[in-house]
Predict the 3D structure of the following.
Amino acid sequence: MAKMNESFLELKTNYLFAEIANRVRAFEEANPNPELPLIRMGIGDVKLPIPQMILDAGKKSLDELGVAEAFRGYEDSGRGYLFAREAVASYYASFGVEINADDVFISDGAKSDTGNIGDLFSPDSVVIITDPVYPVYDNASIMRGHRVVRSNFVTDELPEKADIIYLCSPNNPTGDAYTFEQLKKWVCYAKKVGAVIIYDSAYEAFIQEPDKCPSSIFEIEGAKECAIEIASLSKNAGFTGIRAGYTIVHKELMLEDAKGEKVSLAELWKKRQASKFNGVNYSAQRMIESALSFEGQQALHENIKYYQENARIIMDALTELGIKFTGGVNSPYVWFKCPNTGDSWEFFDFLLNKVHVVGTPGIGFGANGAGMFRLTAFSTRENTTEAMRRFREKIPTVRNS
Ligand code: MLT
């Protein structure tokens, strides 16, 4: 009989958001008509529709596919259409970062690329993961058999050896964004130990303090030689269903082969993508082009502001209840210590059963998330306001340190 990849045995039984979905389903089956409707503030899935101009770009592209002269089949560069890659480069130029369209790879979202990029590294690689963290980095590294070092990086020392460093800023789940100084330190460290930073910038559009927190790791000098940036249009443009994002790999970024020869990481990624991925559909790429244009960004700004206001409503309620939190300012996530219990799942069950609000238990993001909890601002205004009304009513005022 064929043998399984034993690394899968090290994974938690269920992916975090699948486990939450199971528990919510069981609750709904047991309580078909709860006196208060369930409010979902767990997975970071957007609620606002995609702005009309971006939809129109998608519709127009579909019409083109119905005309023989305009029809398109496979896109042969394997990196995405030039118009989409140029749109990414122009978007970065709008906040002062120079990107060459040749260094852009259009993707079907950040999750796939953050999970797949590890294919390019040696099987004995050491992966640094900040804990708590988006579970994809951890799970993908475990599946591949890489050695994972998890650290809180507040009290823990940085290891002497590292090959891959996953960073996410603004962070999922804590909602904190790295400052220029903090990110500079990571770049210096990566260069010192010869590691590659996989920088997940999925929540970049939520940064409200651009003078303090960079929108891209490429705002840091020297990052081109040691970092990849993986971005998404899910959270800013509402593409969670469309599936589209992009990854930037500069030509300057090198790995080493067993003989000590330098190999371009971008070339390896091209080979990997050409072998296992046939690109993102044409319409999604036209929608990327539209979303990243000046007008598209203006339209999306309204959606971002809406979620930022939701985050403010959550922060106000937690402040009133004496619950300390991080995030919410530069992020759609608010992260806090569970009131009256040190157990994240216990608080999850309490919220689900007594408050009829779904959130995400911090322990699902790693050991350092124990006793913590995450709420997302990606809800409607009505539901966010109602959820916080219930918090005020059902969660006694606590003072936790
Ligand atoms: C989350 O809620 O952490 C994310 O939305 C999940 C994802 O993007 O895959």
